[in-house]
Amino acid sequence: MASAISVRMAGVKPPKAVKYEAITGILKECDEVVEDFGDSTALDAGMIAAAQTVERYEMASYGALRTWAEELGMNDAAKLLEETLLEERGADQLLTRLAEAKVNLKAA
Ligand SMILES: [Fe+2]
Predict the structure, then answer these.
(1) Separation of 83 CA from ligand 1 center, angstroms?
(2) Total structural domains in the chain?
(3) Which of 11, 39, 94, 105 is 20–30 Å from 66 (CA)?
(4) CATH of the domain at 90
C-alpha cells in the first residue's frame, strides 16, 4: 500500500504520529483470540474475524478521507484514497472467501 506516501505527494500534509485507540483495542482483541483459542481449530476463524475488523476500520477511514478529498477538490488525493479503499475491500472479500470456503468449517 503506497498510498500514504502517494497521498502526501498529491498535496496532503503528512500526518503526525498518532496513537489510534480503536486499532489498539482491535489488536488487544486479537491477543484475546489467541489466548482463548490458541490450541483449537477455531483460532484461524477468530484471527480472520479480527483481521476483517481491521480491514473494515480501514475502509471506513479511507472512505471518509476520499470523500473529504473529493469535496475539497483534491482530485489526485481522492483517486489514491479510492484505490486504497478498493484494496482494503478486496482484502476483506478475500478473507470472507477464505473463512467461508475452509476455515469456518474446520472450526465448527
Ligand atoms: Fe488493510
Answers:
(1) 12
(2) 1
(3) 94
(4) 1.20.1260.10
Owning domain of residue 26 = 21-107
Question: Is residue 7 in a domain?
Answer: no
pLDDT at 7: 60
30: Cβ contacts below 8 Å, ≥ 6 apart: 47, 50
- 9: in domain: no
Structure confidence at residue 86 (pLDDT)? 98
How do residues 8-18 score in pLDDT, each as one tens digit? 556 667 777 88
Segment 66-94, tens digit of pLDDT: 999 999 999 999 999 999 999 999 999 99
List Cα–Cα distances, 50 to 55, 66, 75, in angstroms: 9, 24, 33
Model pTM above 0.85: no
Ligand 1 midpoint to CA 44 (Å): 18
Kindly give the distance from the C-alpha atom of residue 78 to the centroid of ligand 1, in angstroms, as a whole number.
Answer: 18
**17: CA distance to ligand 1 center in Å?**
18
CA of 46 to the centre of ligand 1 (A): 17
Angstrom distance (rounded) from CA 48 to CA 25: 16
